Cupin domain-containing protein (Mesorhizobium montanum), 140 residues
Amino acid sequence: MKTMNRRSAIAFGVTAATVAPLFATATFAKTKKYGPNEGKEIAPGVRVVEVGTGNSDIPAYKSISIVDVVFQPGAHAPQSVMDTDMVCTITSGAFTIKKADKEFKLKEGDMYTCSKGKTDEATNTSKEVGVHRIAVLVPA
């Protein structure tokens, strides 16, 4: 077995400190329950709740906004054109996602991306409230 030197210990500590907030955010997403009137309605049974915003170290983006899109069972967000790049995580429920060139199904824990200028459409196919946690990448 290899012994841990000082440099390895520091690297391990920095990594643990960096990852810990990500696990806290994931836990929050799974446990947070939204009321029927929280956020802004964007379609029948679909509401957007702002979670937070932070600066980005990615040169192409000045900031990242996190939002939860909350879908009631069976709710549908109609096709829309994305105005920025996004990374989406399903934190509860199950969904059918339709893009111009494909359709796919996702469940809790799955991720997908949306590109600026492309279309996207989502339907909650589960019998529970479904949530998309979206990292909206705001261009620099």
The longest helix spans residues 6-31. The CA atoms of residues 99 and 120 lie 5 Å apart. Confidence is low (pLDDT under 50) at residues 1-31. The beta strands are 40-43, 46-55, 61-71, 76-81, 85-92, 94-98, 103-107, 111-114, 119-124, 130-139.
